[in-house]
Amino acid sequence: MTRFYEFTATSLDGRPISMADYAGKVVLVVNTASQCGFTPQYAGLEALFKKYADQGLVVLGFPCNQFGKQEPGGADDISKTCYINYGVSFPMFEKVEVNGAAAHPIFRYLKDELSGVLGGRIKWNFTKFLIGRDGKPLKRFAPVTTPEKMEEVIVAALGR
């Protein structure tokens, strides 16, 4: 079992979820925010999720308020943005930190495995990490990379 499957996170509605629940799937982990210039990416992420869920893709959204205070609200506010404004049906988790001493263990692990331009830090909201069916991190995508531009890499990961 890879390390990714050893982690647990709390869903937006307060339930602990084991990443082992996603074993055998291609997982896209995204740090999200409701009031960011990239927030419209929710629509593209949802479109990818709907298009490829039957083939094994799951998108996991982790709201974060560390960049420009663009996720100031609580779970109710976050769910309104995700579910009502963007029709998100993929799993969303409680607000987390992705950088610093209080960073969620999932993000500490992913940054160690796939360091980006800033080394072990996440630059901004909507940084994305693609994890293969075996639980191994495959690729990191910058916030500016739209979901549509990731589709080819996701399709390749689904075919492995």
Provide a descriptive summary of the structure in words.
The chain is of the alpha+beta class and 160 residues long. It has four helices and six strands, in the order βββαβααββα. It has helices spanning 41-52, 75-85, 105-113, 147-158, and strands at 8-10, 16-18, 26-32, 57-63, 128-131, 137-141. A four-stranded mixed beta sheet has the order 4-3-5-6, covered by helices on one side. Strands 1-2 form a two-stranded antiparallel ribbon. The chain starts with 7 loop residues before the first strand and ends with a helix. The model has no long low-confidence stretch (mean pLDDT 84).
What percentage of amino acids are in beta strands? Answer: 15-25%
Chain-averaged pLDDT: 84
Give, in order, the helices and strands.
Answer: EEEHEHHEEH
Strand order of the largest sheet: 4-3-5-6
Note the total helix count: 4
Structural class of the helix and strand makeup? alpha+beta
User: What's the oligomerization state?
Assistant: single chain
Termini gap: 18 Å
Shape: globular
Q: What is the percent of helical residues?
A: 25-40%
Main sheet specs: 4 strands, mixed
Instruction: State Rg.
Output: 14 Å
Low-confidence stretches: none
Number of strands: 6
